[in-house]
Each structure stands twice: as structure tokens, then as C-alpha cells.
């Protein structure tokens, strides 16, 4: 099982193994934090290329990928999770979010790319630790959803997980 704690300001993943020890391992997306970072979670910010594909996550993504290249041909999104509170139905694809330069992409694209990048790094770590080649569909995924969210917002996260390739179809 891999759980993704997709927070407003910080994110991380944790995993454990069935039938093994009760140990749960906490991780953050690869190259998302500096060794001097005090938090055990990565900053929830994502860098996307012009095609809307994730190329960086967290503080290092923001500084090393985006700011180092002055944002040319890239999007930087922060605090985007807060837009989920505005969802009225889980089929709502009309929510558009702006990066810090005002350029826009669909919220579903931004969130699914964040989930894709975090899950990819979690899978890489799990496969390294186990010596196996597990796929996303071999894993039981848990994505945190605040209790105060509407069922529509939780459904939207489920659709983002489908789009990210974590689950094969909507439940």
C-alpha cells in the first residue's frame, strides 16, 4: 500500500508491506527538497512544461527547474489544492487555475500531474526496496482527502487519480 498525503502546502507519501513488519516508510518526491529542509514533507508546488507535463515538484522543482530558467516555457503552480473547495460536482472539468504568471491550465491536469509525479517516485522507491517491478495497478493506493470536503471534491480527486494512472477506472 502507498498513501499520498497531498496537502495544501506540503505533501509526502508513505508505504508499507502486507505480511511484513509494521514499519511504515515516509518519503518525498525525488529531488523535491534540499538536505537542509526542516520539514519531512515537500512543498506542494509543481512545475509543468508547456505541454502540461510535470517536470519538477517541491522547493527544488521551484528553484532549480523554474526560477533557474526564469520560467521560460514552464508553469509554476502553488496552493492549487484550495480550488477543490469550489467543486460542485465531480464531473466538473471547468475549473481553471492560473500559475503565478497568470497562465491557465485545467485543475484536473495540474492535480493529476502532481499525483503522477509523486506516485512515480513512490513506486520507484518501493521497487528499489523490494527488487520487484510492481506497476501502479499492483498497489493499493490511498490519497488523503479532508473530511470537510464535499463528495464532489473527493470524486474529483478520484478522477485525477484515474488520469494519473493510479487506478484503472473510476470507482
Task: Supply the helix-strand structural class.
Answer: alpha+beta
Mean pLDDT: 83
For the sheet with most strands, the description reads: 5 strands, mixed
In the predicted model, the low-confidence regions spanning at least 5 consecutive residues are none
- State the order of secondary-structure elements, H for helix, E for strand: EEEEEEHEEEHEH
Portion in strands: 15-25%
Task: Explain what the structure shows.
The protein is of the alpha+beta class and 171 residues long. 27% of the residues lie in helices and 23% in strands. The strands form 3 sheets. Strands 1, 2, 3, 4 and 10 form a 5-stranded mixed beta sheet that branches. The protein has a 3-stranded antiparallel beta sheet with strand order 6-5-7. A hairpin with a 3-residue loop joins strand 1 and strand 2. Helix 2 packs across helix 3. The longest helix is centred in the last third of the chain and has 24 residues. The two termini are 18 Å apart. The relative contact order is 0.18.
Amino acid at each position: 500500500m502507498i498513501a499520498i498525503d497531498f496537502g495544501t502546502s506540503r505533501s509526502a507519501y508513505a508505504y508499507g508491506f502486507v505480511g511484513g513488519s509494521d514499519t511504515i516508510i515516509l518519503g518525498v518526491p525525488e529531488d523535491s527538497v534540499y538536505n537542509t529542509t526542516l520539514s519531512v514533507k515537500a512543498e506542494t508546488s509543481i512545475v509543468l512544461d508547456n505541454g502540461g507535463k510535470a517536470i519538477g515538484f517541491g522547493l527544488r522543482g521551484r528553484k532549480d527547474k523554474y526560477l533557474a530558467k526564469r520560467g521560460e516555457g514552464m508553469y509554476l503552480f502553488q496552493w492549487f489544492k484550495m480550488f477543490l473547495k469550489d467543486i460542485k460536482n465531480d464531473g466538473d472539468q471547468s475549473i481553471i487555475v492560473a500559475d503565478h504568471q497568470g497562465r491557465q491550465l485545467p485543475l484536473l491536469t495540474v492535480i493529476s500531474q502532481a499525483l503522477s509525479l509523486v506516485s512515480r517516485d513512490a513506486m520507484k522507491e518501493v521497487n528499489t526496496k523490494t527488487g520487484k517491478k510492481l506497476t501502479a495497478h499492483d498497489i493499493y493506493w490511498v490519497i488523503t482527502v479532508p473530511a470537510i470536503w464535499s463528495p464532489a471534491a473527493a470524486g474529483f480527486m478520484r478522477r485525477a487519480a484515474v488520469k494519473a494512472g493510479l487506478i484503472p477506472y473510476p470507482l
